[in-house]
């Protein structure tokens, strides 16, 4: 069985990835902060799908805990990881200048540092085996400056990093892709205390649909996956409009979110 490691695996897009990959026959390594929820998800997948599921509790904002995940990705004695899903991500409500610096740093550590470190840990083994894939969950927010200041900047980095690395790894048998969803119905915004009540229904995506689109794009060898026709159009528009106009459009939503 191939093995996939999924971060942020207990809710939202991460849980949807875990369910879909288990259905597709992957053994799993699930990473999240909350042990009871990890065990609950793992037990459900073992029972329903008959796959092997490892539980690896870790707060990716903590460098010492993140090292345990890096070590698992490097370990060739256990089942090597064939697919890495860097899904864990956080955002914060409030203006950047009003937030505690430690809060902003923790967000950066999860959204950026963990993507860099975990990808760096898994690639040597994949390259030796000449197979494997990394999916880094970014966001449409990364294309729109002004949407959440640091969150958009974090995700812009993830997208550029993934596209560049994917290009560098051409013809190695290893793929890297950025997944850039828009608003998705998960716990993400509630956890950050971000009010999304004014967001039109047409802009909401379903987590299972996001995962299905992502895996289809990965099979096609794409470097970038943007689920949903509305978001494909939006991303295309941001690339054609003058940057000043993109900033004005972006400033109308996502205020008060760093």
| Low confidence ranges | 254-258
H/E order of the elements? Answer: EHEHEHEHEHEHHEHH
Number of helical elements: 9
**Strand percentage, roughly?**
5-15%
Description:
By secondary structure, the chain is an alpha/beta fold. It contains nine helices and seven strands. The chain has helices spanning 12-23, 35-49, 63-74, 101-129, 150-168, 188-191, 207-219, 229-240, 243-251, and strands spanning 3-7, 27-32, 53-57, 83-86, 132-137, 174-179, 224-225. Strands 3-2-1-4-5-6-7 form a seven-stranded parallel beta sheet, with helices on both faces. α1 links the parallel β1 and β2. α1 packs across α7, α3 runs parallel beside α4 and α4 (101-129) runs parallel beside α5. The longest helix is centred in the middle third of the chain and has 29 residues, at 101-129. The protein starts with a strand and ends in a 7-residue tail after the last helix. The relative contact order is 0.13. Residues 254-258 have low confidence and may be disordered.
Topology:
Elements: E1 3-7, H1 12-23, E2 27-32, H2 35-49, E3 53-57, H3 63-74, E4 83-86, H4 101-129, E5 132-137, H5 150-168, E6 174-179, H6 188-191, H7 207-219, E7 224-225, H8 229-240, H9 243-251
Parallel strand pairs: 1-2, 1-4, 2-3, 4-5, 5-6, 6-7
Highlighted features:
258 residues; alpha/beta; 7-stranded parallel beta sheet; globular
Quick summary of this structure?
With 258 residues, the chain is an alpha/beta fold.
């Amino acid at each position: 069985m191939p093995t996939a490691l999924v971060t942020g695996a207990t809710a939202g897009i991460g849980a949807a990835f875990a369910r879909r990959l288990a259905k597709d026959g992957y053994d799993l390594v699930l990473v999240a902060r909350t042990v009871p929820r990890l065990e609950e998800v793992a037990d459900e997948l073992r029972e329903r799908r008959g796959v092997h599921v490892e539980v690896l509790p870790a707060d990716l904002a903590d460098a010492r805990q993140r090292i345990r995940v890096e070590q698992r990705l490097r370990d060739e004695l256990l089942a090597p990881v064939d697919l890495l899903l860097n899904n864990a991500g956080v955002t914060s409500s409030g203006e950047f200048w009003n937030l505690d610096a430690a809060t902003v740093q923790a967000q950066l550590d999860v959204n950026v540092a963990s993507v860099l470190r975990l990808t760096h840990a898994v690639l040597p083994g994949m390259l030796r085996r000449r197979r494997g894939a990394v999916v880094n969950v970014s966001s449409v927010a990364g294309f729109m400056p002004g949407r959440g200041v640091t969150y958009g900047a974090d995700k812009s980095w993830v997208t550029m990093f993934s596209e560049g690395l994917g290009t560098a790894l051409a013809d190695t048998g290893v793929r890297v892709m950025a997944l850039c969803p828009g608003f998705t119905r998960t716990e993400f915004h509630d956890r950050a205390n971000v009010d999304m009540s004014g967001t039109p229904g047409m802009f909401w995506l379903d987590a299972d649909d996001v995962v299905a689109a992502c895996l289809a794009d990965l099979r096609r060898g794409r470097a970038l996956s943007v689920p949903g026709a509305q978001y494909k159009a939006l991303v295309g528009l941001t690339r054609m409009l003058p940057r000043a106009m993109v900033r004005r459009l972006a400033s109308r939503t996502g205020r008060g979110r760093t």
